[in-house]
Amino acid sequence: MTKPRDSVIWGAILLMVGAGILLWNLDILGGAEAAATWAMVALFALLGLAFIVGYLNQRAAWWRLIPGFTLLAVAVIIFLSARGLPASWVAAVLLASITLAFLVIYLSDRAERWWALIPAGSVAVMAAVVLLSTRPTATPELLGAVLFGGMALVFYLIYLLAAERQRFAWALAPAAALGVMSLAALAAYLAASSPALAAAQRLWPTLLIVAGAALLGYAALRASRQAAPAVELPAAAAPAAAPLASGASVTTMTDDASPSKKPRYERSPITLVDEKPAGQAAGAASSGEVPDIYEFLKNAPPEEGSQR
How does residue 266 score in pLDDT terms, banded at 50, 70 and 90? Predict the structure, then answer.
């Protein structure tokens, strides 16, 4: 009740429920008993559906499933009580509704809401014990065996259904402890129910010895597999060179030898010069003068087309 609205809702619910039960106990309703029964059934059913619809609209508010299923169970209990349902079945219906609520919470997000399995399984075991207690042959030893065995199964399911079992290995400790207590209670029940099994009651710890030896053998087998040295494979032999055919060249090319580069030829720039007589060319070569294309174009006579 962190918000004022929640306080208003729960206050109104408690007020109406208390007033209805008080009128019922004081016999004020009188002849309107049937109408009052249907009115209470409808009231609790609508309240339960309201919480469930609220959860469907906002999936993060998973807590709404618990009062939702509980209020629906109360509506069913009121209806069945008017039909003369035994008190043991009334308790079983209420516990079954709470179990269903936590089971839906777990299924909505199994990775993050794994914890919902604990109350779901615990309440389910309590419902089974309540139903079993109605039988005449149900002794305290049998009820204890069912209670402890059911709780051991709950913790084992937490480990078995986990995506990362190594992370939930802690659940095996309470599962083992509760399992031992269940076996002890079951042995006491069998000894009390059958005198022929009274002598065998002392031998039930042999089951624990067998289970312990099996676990030790399994651990030793895994340790031996992990400690086994790795087998080294022999190195692959180099492939033998194929024999050369007669007349074949013995020259071989290796990958390391880089191919010889071809010589690069550089071209000298092309220069346009006016051809001179041999004597002038020889003199220019001896004097070290280099003919210039620009001087040639400057001193060249104009063409006939340009004079026009």
Answer: low
